[in-house]
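User: My advisor asked me to double-check a structure prediction for Transcriptional regulator MraZ before group meeting. I don't want to rely on an old file, so could you generate it fresh from this sequence?
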Amino acid sequence: MFQGNHPLTIDAKGRIMIPARYRDVLLEGAKGELTFTCNFDGGLLVYPRAQWESKLEEIMRLPANRASVKRTLLGNAFDVDIDKAGRVLIPAQLRERASLDKDVVLVGMGRHFDLWDAAKYEALVAVDLEAGLPDDLDDFSL
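Assistant: Sure, here is a fresh prediction for Transcriptional regulator MraZ from the sequence you gave:
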């Protein structure tokens, strides 16, 4: 399970270093294979390839009136590999689409990661904390 947030820097070639606590798991369990795609909030989704393939099956089962969801998720999906130094290249189109320039945050979301521009992530978290739990989660206990 992936959790926590990790401030990272995109290098001049568009790569990030996968945090050490996840690197071995991803290299062994996922063969170093990841899939990047857009999310609907302005960041990126990062899946270990096997997790993405399961999600891909779910996406493909969406009804025809959800073609825009398929187009966004599948049309922006890129398969990448972690290199020997533990780095991964973020495709240029996705860096541009998510406004990822230098300072980013990799956020563990259980079975996948979100990747955000650092300033955008901090603003999003501030709004989320201010808003509190949504009304439909009143019964949810922490």
